[in-house]
């Protein structure tokens, strides 16, 4: 389908039987605002799915439903083929769904190993339940080495790390708990080439080990470097779902431009000069 032929939702693709995550016919409204309409999405084991869309397209709502912050009005979510009903973010984590947001949720004044165990600290026996610091340091060192994350020392405070190293620590904390699907919100935001390369390599290494991920990013170049497949969400509907190998940066850009023009022509967004309406 050429970009000029677009009209509404892309044909729903049947999810492979081995999909680790399936979102089926999910809809969500907030009062009179329709945030999502019959969304179908899947992620396979070891796949990196790029989720694309303009502001207000529904990406945040979809991600919040997947991670348990919102519940859908209709539709269902399946993890490894079993239907789940997330009642909270903690509930989603117990089922293996976690998110690394742009703020990373790290404590800068704590050492790396303590951040890896944040909220999941290990303790020693006895009435005082002391922190098992030596064991946590050792496991943290082994895990960071296994996923090829280089840091000065697990005893170094997070505030001494570069932006790329902090992002890597946040990803490591999530994946250390055997997460099945990891959502990454703008993982390369405001990073230089060297730090971006660090995170790109980390994501590719994790995917090669079987880690499934959904990457939300506005930078199309990043998405083509990181992802195996791209899904575009527009006005609460998946309008494009294609393997990266079967599309191009030029096609994606043209598609998004044509989608914007379509919304302007139908009066759904304002033109840059202020004409039109929302």
Topology-level CATH name of the largest domain: Rossmann fold
Largest sheet: 6 strands, mixed
- CATH superfamily of the largest domain, called what? P-loop containing nucleotide triphosphate hydrolases
The total count of helices amounts to 8
Please provide the count of β strands: 10
Per the principal axes of the C-alpha atoms, what is the gross shape?
globular
Q: Kindly report the spatial arrangement of strands forming the biggest sheet.
A: 6-7-8-3-9-10
Report the C-alpha radius of gyration, rounded.
20 Å
CATH architectural name of the largest domain: 3-Layer(aba) Sandwich
Percentage of residues assigned to helices: 25-40%
The protein's oligomeric status is single chain
Per DSSP, what share of the residues sits in E-state strands of 2 or more residues? Answer: 15-25%
- Overall pLDDT, averaged? 88
Class based on secondary structure composition and strand pairing: alpha/beta
Report low-confidence residues grouped into runs of 5 or more: 1-7
State the CATH class of the largest domain: Alpha Beta
- Tell me the number of structural domains: 2
Structure in words:
With 278 residues, the protein is α/β, with parallel strands linked by helices. It has two domains: 1-96 and 180-278, Rossmann fold (3-Layer(aba) Sandwich), CATH 3.40.50.300; 107-178, no CATH class. The protein is 31% helix and 22% strand. It has helices spanning 59-66, 89-94, 112-116, 133-146, 163-176, 193-208, 220-226, 249-265, and strands at 21-30, 33-43, 48-52, 74-79, 82-84, 97-100, 181-185, 212-216, 229-234, 237-243. It has a six-stranded mixed β-sheet, with helices on both faces. A hairpin with a 2-residue loop joins β1 and β2 (33-43). α5 runs parallel beside α6. The radius of gyration is 20 Å and the shape is globular. It starts with 20 loop residues before the first strand and ends in a 13-residue tail after the last helix.
